[in-house]
User: Fold uracil phosphoribosyltransferase from Hydnum rufescens UP504.
Amino acid sequence: MTANRPATGLPPNVFTLNYSPQLEALRGDFIFYTDRIIRLLVEEGLNHLPVIPKTVETPTGVQYEGVGFEGRICGVSILRAGEAMEAGLREVCRSVRIGKILIQRDEETAEAKLFYSKLPPDISSRYVLLLDPMLATGGSALKAVEVLKEHGVPEERIIFINLIASPEGLRTFCGKLPLLRVVTGWIDQGLNEKAYIIPGLGDFGERR
Ligand code: URA
Assistant:
């Protein structure tokens, strides 16, 4: 699976899965197939990690000049929907550490507010796969990145893994975070007046 840069004038740090009839068909049967798409997204996210040369000797006794991952990773899910992506990450990266961030909208100020976070203590030395299936306005994701930065994670070590994004959310998010990378499965049409992605999937949490 190779990543695409969407030809829609979106920021250069947005990468999508290649469009295919298969991906289009997967969208139809949400619950079963989201797990499959999430796995594809995690695999694609791992392609953005730096590698260093590594020599291995194969069982034939021949030396092969390959590569190995340079750094350690962890996952951080933005609760609650992001939790649904944890299993997909674990399937690909066995015994990966996973932190959690709970952000909710403050009803008085309408601002995204941090309610809870539990992150690996050595997170500042890791690459972070930040998990949230729906990028609507980008408010929660921006807040989550703020929390990661406060814990010492540099922006360029964060890869945001996302199922469906709105173009306006991507512009806001990537406009403020040009060094972070977004790997998304699908860029939808836009947002409705309730800030739901359209055509979208409705409320992700309610469908699982
Ligand atoms: N969260 C969802 O679950 N769905 C949307 O469309 C936007 C945010």
Remarks:
- The longest strand covers residues 72-79.
